[in-house]
Specification:
Two copies of one chain form a homodimer.
Chain A: H1 3-6, H2 15-25, E1 29-31, E2 38-40, H3 42-61, E3 65-66, E4 72-74, H4 75-78, H5 82-88, E5 91-102, E6 109-111, E7 116-123, H6 128-138, E8 147-156, E9 170-180, H7 183-203, E10 210-213, E11 225-232, E12 238-248, H8 250-254, E13 258-260, E14 266-268, E15 270-277, H9 279-288, E16 305-310, H10 314-333, E17 338-340, H11 348-357, E18 362-367, H12 368-373, E19 375-380, E20 386-390, H13 394-419, E21 421-423, H14 427-436, E22 439-443, H15 448-458, E23 461-466, E24 474-475, E25 482-483, E26 486-490
Parallel strand pairs in A: 3-8, 16-17, 16-18, 21-22
Antiparallel strand pairs in A: 1-2, 4-7, 5-6, 5-7, 8-9, 9-15, 10-11, 10-23, 11-12, 12-15, 13-14, 18-19, 19-20, 22-26, 23-26, 24-25
Helix pairs in contact in A: 3-7
């Protein structure tokens, strides 16, 4: 039974190690030769591509267009928006030279000291500055608004401690940057995109999320408001999965972007930005997978169904092929992504373990006996349950099963989150509960000072003020001062 | 008639200026604040996206999978493959530091001198080195081969003289990197991908190309053979539009990538790489466009058909809307990308000029009179011819017209190339002809020395040795030495 594939640390033993091993063993990604930068392997990239394609369609349905802005940002741009530079400019890759030359003292190449740049360039950690510098020339009248651009690209933040997908120096993402005539329109766009993210997370990733507002302390550098979707991983920690920012007129003022309104007056433009990244891969993996490997939601699985023949003779294989080929054909017509793995250089047991590890949602196994009986063995990856189903009509059956699995893993994740969400009203209870993980709904006095003290003492941060949090009189868990609603505390990735 | 849009330099006056203006005026791209780096605007990016989507499908049909490798390459990697570093390492962006800090002497930020990297990192000019360093861990047995990866990404070469799309410091491209067990298989893959490129150029871009082999002098740094597709622009200059390289075992040896063959012996792996870039946008523009603006091939046009109403009263517009809306619906069902532009803040004349500039292949204009007559005015962008067509069945009519235009502009470009391709047998004739532009088919003695002298004296380079060049005894145009086939000389972009 292909023991090497199964040789995966158990979640209960060491969740963090389980994750690290799984990402590598399931061929999703690996560390590269460059500190903190990952290689996304073909199987991992295929999942990311499905995410991209779906998100991209959803963005376009809201009127967003794609564009591309430069990788490099002049150093001086970063200091234009004061709060932005505070939050971002510290750890980033700096380009100082534009030429190498042969080492005069020996082998290899050295940096040519004569090729120093007049102004250093920064590899984008995010692109607000260069984009708003560009928008200045694109916007002059209310007729040019709204301007709704997105780019899919790589960005770089020189993280000290990295983990595959969750925190890497280079990562892939999309960043949307919109410009609006009014505050209300910009605010509405920021919320609209948050809703796109939460729809995507729930309907495609099968990851339930809480929509909320970040506290001032956790806001994006330069934003007036940061909206977030927060997911809970199996270990009870929170993972921020996407953010959408209402930027007010901060970047418009920093880069002097004005427009003439309908009343013929000059005004600064209102802005949003929003992004999700390859970090979503981490959320996907940690929400659903188990001790046998990945569990992928059918809506994002590169292979939704694998069919494996079990046979002794070439004749038997021939017979199975004849039954399977039309099934493959019909599944494809139903837009089901299917792989028929009849390669003869691996044993069925090895294949079973491998596709389990890779999280393929449905496995069909077909032997000579099954064909005689007109049945096929069906395994669903999420529950590992096996049963027989009639061969006749198997395509529709599988199609429905995929939807069942999609719903099933969402429900399971939601149940887990609900079971791991606690209302807490005393500081002692808070300190005790936070050690066990989960989301804590507690009152907070609204000050950054208290927020930071709680973090210092417990490593818990305020993940968000949930958008649907009901008004409720209460007292801050830490200071006892009055509070109007509960916020979500958790430890986080 | 929206004169500002038409204010485009004529090709006959100054072809180069016409191109530069057109790229900007048609909203394809513009210079950014960073020297040599472009901003690809939404309309330009939409064309690039259609190219990407189509090429990506074609790659996948040959078994290629996408992956992602790091942006940054350790400096030492570049000197591992000796010829490769000769050809590439000179002009590139060098990352030397990983942190900024607040300027202690005043405003803004400065590079933190304490954050110097131990080894400098280079922004990838191409990724052979980092990919082959990765492949070492992915390949151990013949069962791991072939390994067929592609990545869509940005790359950077510090070009001194840049032109939008044609030569920019940062550009977008795809780079395929394959590993094979045998020389023959790798050579066949390099040719297969060249054929994918030529199919794409001819069937989607409507750009006829010559497939050929580069001379040793023009080969990719590190390749044993470079295959190319060469297109002719309207000014008679050549544009290299895609290359595919047979890399032999050079990178496998430099990065120690071996596999155990079926006979249980260790062997070095054989390699190919192949790429096309946003340079294709330049080829597309310069092959078809005219003094009125872009002419886009229907297979890549983001908007294939625009419908413009002409009306005086709101009632008339209402009537036209009622006729047009179902046409739009049916066109979409036929997979035709259509825009109904009934915005009332621009006059029809402005719209006509704008969509002409943007190269929309088919324009339908509909007025109240047309509806009475059951006809519609049809304009095809390639010939600017207008005629009336019956409203009944207009969708199929348009669909066919789009195919006619696709074929028509290909035929026109092919005719142009044929008319501008000359067999030349004397040096005087060569020098005279090269001034007039076009491809020159001439004999060459096969030496780099002669190739370079011809380039020095005439600025003509050998674009390729065409794959279908017939054997023919002849004498080198320059030295009179014997030659077995004609090669293509041209000036080039």
């Amino acid at each position: 039974m292909a023991k090497e594939l199964k040789d995966l640390t158990k979640r209960a033993e060491n969740y963090s190690q389980w994750y690290n091993e799984l990402v590598v063993k399931a061929d999703l990604a690996e560390q590269s030769a460059v500190r903190g930068c990952m290689v996304i392997k073909p199987y991992g990239y295929a999942i990311w591509e499905k995410m991209q394609r779906q998100l991209d369609d959803m963005f376009k349905q809201t009127g967003v267009q794609n564009a591309y802005f430069p990788l490099l940002i002049p150093k001086s741009f970063l200091s234009r928006e004061a709060e932005h530079v505070e939050g971002f400019a510290k750890e980033c890759a700096v380009v100082t030279h534009h030429r190498l030359k042969n080492d005069p003292d020996g082998k290899g190449v050295v940096v040519d000291p004569d090729a120093r740049l007049e102004e250093e360039l920064i590899i984008r950690p995010t692109s607000e500055t260069i984009i708003w510098n560009t928008y200045r020339n694109w916007i002059s009248s209310y007729r040019d608004l709204p301007l709704l651009c997105n780019q899919w690209c790589n960005v770089m933040r020189w993280e000290m401690r990295t983990r595959l997908f969750l925190r890497t120096a280079e990562f892939l993402w999309q960043e949307g940057h919109t410009a609006h005539a009014t505050k209300e329109e910009a605010q509405a766009k920021a919320i609209e995109m948050l809703n796109v993210y939460s729809d995507f997370a729930e309907k495609y990733m099968a990851v339930p999320v809480v929509k909320g507002v970040k506290t001032a302390n956790e806001r994006f550098a330069g934003a007036l408001e940061t909206y977030t979707i927060e997911a809970m991983m199996q270990d009870g920690k929170a993972l921020q999965s996407g953010t959408s920012h209402f930027l007010g007129q901060n970047f418009a003022k920093a880069f002097d972007v004005k427009y003439i309104n309908k009343e013929n007056q000059l005004e600064y433009v209102w802005a949003t930005s929003w992004g999700v990244s390859t970090r979503l891969m981490g959320a996907l993996i940690m929400t659903h997978s188990d001790d046998n490997g990945l569990v992928l939601p059918p809506h994002l699985a590169p292979i939704q169904v694998v069919i494996i023949p079990v046979y002794k003779t070439d004749d038997q294989l021939q017979t199975i092929n004849e039954v399977v080929n039309p099934i493959v054909e019909r599944l494809r017509q139903l837009n089901v992504s299917v792989k028929y793995d009849n390669a003869d250089n691996k044993r069925p047991g090895f294949k079973f373990a491998d596709y389990e590890l890779k999280g393929v949602p449905v496995r069909l196994v077909l032997g000579a006996r099954d064909i005689e009986n007109g049945t096929v063995e069906v395994m669903r990856r999420d529950t590992l349950e096996k049963h027989n189903a009639p061969l006749a009509g198997i395509e529709e059956y599988v199609k429905n099963l995929l939807e069942d699995i999609q719903q099933g893993i969402y429900d399971k994740a939601l149940r887990h989150r609900e079971e791991m969400t606690f209302k807490v009203d005393t500081w002692d209870e808070f300190k005790e509960q936070i050690e066990k993980g989960g989301f804590i709904l507690a009152h907070w006095d609204g000050t950054t000072e208290t927020e930071e003290k709680i973090k210092e003492e417990t490593k818990a941060t305020i993940r968000c003020i949930p958008m649907d949090a009901p008004e409720e009189e209460g007292k801050c868990i830490y200071t006892g001062k009055p509070s109007k609603r509960r916020v979500i505390f958790a430890r986080n990735y």
